[in-house]
Amino acid sequence: MPEVCVTTLPGELRAAVDQAAVSHHSPIEGTSHEIRIRVSSRADTLEKIAAAVSMLKDPDAQAFGQQGSGSANASQPTDEPQKPNAPRKNGWTDLVPSQSVICEHDFFALGYTWWQTQVLTRRLRYTSNLDHLHFENRLVEAARAFVDGRLREATEAMHDCFDALAEERDHYFSSDPSLIDLTLLTPGTIDSWLETRSTSPQQPLDGDSVPRTALPTPENLLVDEDVAVAVADGPAERRERFRQALERNDQKPPSPRIADQTPGVDATPNGGQPADQPSPQPNSVGWLGGGPSSDFSFDEHSIAASEQRIASAVRAVRDVGTGPLTVYGRLGGGIAGEWVPAIAAAGFDGIVPVDFLNGRGFDDESKVLLGEGDQEVEALTSKPIDADDESSFLTLSTKLGEEIDRGEIATALMVHWPGGGCDSFHDVRRAASWSLCLGRFWRIDDYFTDGERPYHHGAAPKATPASAETVADLKRRRSRLHDDLRLQSERNVIGYAALVNPEIAFQAIDNGEDSTTVVANVAASLGFPVGSAVYRTGIENAQPKTSQSAENVLLMHASFPAARTGVHVSGKVSPNAASVFDAASSGNGTDLIVDVPAWGFSAVGPAVPLGGEGDKPKASSALKKLSRWLTGGGGKISKENRLSNEFMEVSI
């Protein structure tokens, strides 16, 4: 039982504790010194610390630079055993990342964790309950064991240090923050990312070492349409490596065998790896994406064209992967709020609406709900942290602690390019492999399926304004929108013809007929002479196609919703005619405002009956309206499909 725990007990309980069970921590042997040095890099830190220790042993030294390589080696006595199979550089093992055994990086990660924990507790809670004496003793024991090459003892002591910091944080913040490591990809960085996956350095375990950790620190990958097309069109060997990197293996490796510690017995001959020891594998990779390329702007395209582009991008991304794509995201451009229901309906468990190229799309809260009802979906809206910027990690723990205090789902979204990341970022990853003190790393798909569910609704995201906002691009934007609408109009005409007569649609597709020919064939199929009709196809709804008036006009509307358009016909047409909203005489003709149903047609003109089959004239005379108003309207207000009173007339 730690002595610090016994001292906090009441007097009668403290007296009843068996003193033999109390762990009395004695101060560190020898003289303690506080050394402050200014460094420019992590390797420079080790060299200057070694020189400082050497200077303390040699009071005659005047400066660090006078020690040279000999002073650096002075911190490592010659009678101490060397770590087996470990290259030396200035008295320290090389700074080589390792996923299997303890190394210098773990001490840096522990220092960063200690610092962040103390900043978190003292800044937000103004106190600390860390047993500093126990922590310092175990830290020194870990350092001595590591320098002596006793990796097993060093690993156990390091675990005690990380556990002490985890208990310190849990005392004030019981929930574990979520950490997301996101790697951004472009077609030009695919090879470099695959290279980092295939050349991850690993160190074999020797007989006096144990794996330093078993906590996963998964990486996540953003794959948009451009990356998917580049992978699909690239070499088959690279495509297969990319697919293998995205494979998910949920099977946990067997526990490594603990080497026999009997003196004089080498459990692993030649310092090799035990036969039943599984080879360390890189962390699994989660992925998100499915968004169109970054230069695609939803504002410049019609709804139909945007829907087709989204479906095409999602299909292209899913084809290059192995596992299901359950999280939607884009590298640039963002996601507009009106597209959230469509994305949710496509089967995505979550979305990341952040525009990483322009730095937009994030919210004050890290994880929120977007959409409503059945189209509700979780969204990661945390402000991205530049993993290459050391200053971004100065107050990481306080940022997460403040989110916990506000009742939010504390999440740190750390973003970088392949092979990127500053020292502090790698400290966070390495510390998270020892304990959950700083937080837990998530695969992005598990973050939405197994992570804490938000209960706050966020504001609808807005797509990043494209370069079309500038005056120079307005013409290009309008031209592209016009082309999309014209193409959609031609497709609608084919679909309209299929509703009237499928043979007309098949003939148009086979012969490549334009919309004018298709419309004429449809009119003839409906029984209207081609030469006496003015046609509408939904998109051209401003003026008739010909300046000459026709006696009877056929208006076809191959779109939705219902349309109301103006047309001029020769002759007199009653305003009570079917489909006529209003009519006004104009010379020898009549200007009509005609209602055309969606995906339907209307015929107007002098030869067309006043009403449809069985319909009555739609308008009541002024005398009838006045009489009904004076008498209180005792008559019926419903006639056929029309409701009317002294205030309004409703046609159903």
TrEMBL record:
Molecular function in Gene Ontology: hydrolase activity
Keywords: Hydrolase
Name of the protein this chain belongs to: Glycosyl hydrolase 38 domain-containing protein
UniProt source species: Rhodopirellula sallentina SM41
Keyword presence, Protein biosynthesis: no
Region of interest: Disordered: 61-91, 194-221, 245-298
Polar residues bias locations: 64-79
Lineage, uppermost ranks: Bacteria, Pseudomonadati, Planctomycetota, Planctomycetia, Pirellulales
Keyword Hydrolase: yes
Domain of life: Bacteria
